[in-house]
Amino acid sequence: MWDYNPKVMEYFLHPKNAGEIENPDGVGEEGSLACGDALKLTFKLDKNGRIANAKFKTFGCASAIASASIMTEMVKGLTIEEAEKITNKDIVDKLGGLPEQKMHCSVMGMGALRVAIANYRSGKGQPQKKIEGKIVCTCFGVTDREIERVIIENELDTVEQVTNYCKAGGGCGSCRGEIQQIIERIRGKKTKKDEVQTKPKKLTNLQKIQLIQRTIGEQIRPLLKADGGDIDLVDVEGSKVIVAFRGMCSRCPTAEFTLKDVIEARLREFVSSDIVVEEQSE
Amino acid sequence: MAKVIYFDNNATTRVADEVLEAMLPFLKDLYGNPSSMHTFGGQVEKYIRRSREQIAILIGCDSSEIIFTSGGTESDNAAIKGVLAALPEKRKIITTRVEHPAVLATCRQMQAAGYRLVELGVDRDGQIDLEELESEVDDDTAIVTIMYANNETGVIFPIDKIAEIVRAKGAVFHTDAVQAVGKLALNLDKSNIDLLSLSGHKLHAPKGIGVLYVKKGTRISPFIIGGHQEKSRRAGTENIAGIVALGEAAELAAKTIDRENTKVKKLRDKLEDSILETCRGAMLNGGKINRLPNTANISFEFIEGEAILLSLDQFGICASSGSACTSGSLEPSHVMRAMGVPFTAAHGSVRFSLSRYNTEQEVDFVIEKMPQIVSRLRELSPFVK
Predict the structure, then answer these.
(1) Of A36, A217, A246, the CB nearest to B332
(2) Which architecture characterizes domain B5-11+258-380 according to CATH?
(3) How far out from the chain centre does Cα B333 lie?
(4) Which residues pair with A50 in a beta bridge?
(5) Which residue of B has its CA nearest to A40?
(6) What pTM does this model have?
């Protein structure tokens, strides 16, 4: 069970500013049904350009509801420029803390606020969600810009933390390597790669088969499974690796492409540069 | 502590008073080791024997076919890994996408070690396709492992038919029956089930005790070694208090099993029918017919499971959910996804699981509270128009 503090529970059970403002000056939506949480934020300005009223609607867990509710309180009375400076960390602090794995709820609050502000600036009325940057995590639709932002604002060091804060890497897991690279780029740290070890000089047949198996299990299968497919290692004859596709892959017209482009490339990288991959003939 | 309405019996159950009574002497005076040469220790042996017989009666087998373990998870691990170790020439495993993680993670670990793994999909009712199963079982298949009843939905698989198919093809069949034992009548002597896992704390015994049933003649290597206990099939000094408790719980279950399909089922049906009728956006998950009598899995569209559970918790009502948020993972339950429950509903699934200790007043209380909880969260949801 989650260890929510009394303040989080209070804002969950008796949320303030729930609802939707009619004819708002800014609308921001973040998250989706598929992701398991979503937030719609609306606000209205007074004649001095300060946020007079803000309301939220949340589909999500207790911390998502509490984060959204407290944020609507925080922005009231602020100018757009002031509101823009609110980070997910401010929301968490105001709530008196959230469980580590729930940090993404506060990030969703911040995200909706920024989208709402962008919406106000680009001309009010219609909700919009603009994708900035390149999608890194396809499972949850998280971009490199979003990942960079949570790393910088929350001083994150590990992929696991990034997943807790913005969900990236929490689905099939195939983007974890890329997230690690972003962390290294930003934090300037050389953390040890915990991938398959660099290849030893000379492999015995047994070692080679084990390494091929491990590479398939850790590097290749998660990619195929994300698309509903799977792969079996059938046999190894010298440098020839024979595999069989299953699930969606077995009917996939681009399987041939996957074979060369992904599987062979990975095996060459991690096992031996002379590896050739073939599909088992029926 | 405030009043608790416990509708989470598929997670764990209360220890029955009779069971606690039976096990206490072994935590106090009768602490001897049954392997000892002295009378003080040796006298304990007969209580283990008695428990074995009590369990054998409940599941319809010979007492020599029962191996005590630490619980369902160990039994599942021991069954799968034990069979693969005993049949090194066979390289294929067949299971389903809706198994408990104790089975699924074990199978996937073996896949990573080079075994071929087939995970059978399920239809919207949560059932597998028997023809697909039949076509997948081949000479290379070491073990087929399919649960008796699903823990999340209560959906019961046609295990006798499945066991027959697997037997005809010469593979070993294991079933995780953790949710079925005590709720459904079993007769293993008359079935083709080779291995069966059961867990004490799902049938009013304490946590930390379980059984792996091994049909006579089944080839299996021991999973935990380093002692002669359980005829060297499971090493480690016996958990005597747990074993005695499980025996007592099994005897109680044998006496009360009829009530599961009368009293418990009636309460479940009342709860389920009323919630489906009074709560907006409510729908049942899993086929209605072939189902455990105590389980109801209901999705509430456009609202989220954790928020529902915490709201129920305010009234002392205990249930569980397949939502992503409750598990600490980011995706909804693998069972909901395998059944193709849409995202609009998968995140809002709630499981109520009853036991013979629940009352009609408790059901009425939940029926009264549920609609207001659902409508409050729906008002907060941006997806409800």
Answers:
(1) A36
(2) Alpha-Beta Complex (3.90)
(3) 16
(4) A79
(5) B382
(6) 0.87
